[in-house]
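Sequence and structure are no longer studied apart. To make this concrete, we show below a single chain and its fold as tokens.
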Amino acid sequence: MIFLKILPLLIPLIIFLIPIISRSYLKFLFTKNKTNKDDLILACDKCGTYSHQSIIIKKRDKNFCSNECASA
């Protein structure tokens, strides 16, 4: 009996919350795998110099700051 009295109040609340919850879930799905490359600073495996990820040279699964370090 009480459920039937509460049901008309719950239906609009549920209809209101479904788009909000689905929108936040979709945002989470599309943004969870993105890494912010602007903030990544890595150390060179040969000389230890810290460099921005955009200029790091990857060779043999190691990070190098320049071609000189990568070729040595």
Summary: The chain has two domains: 1-34, 35-72. The chain has a mean pLDDT of 86. The beta strands are 41-43, 50-52, 57-59, 62-64.
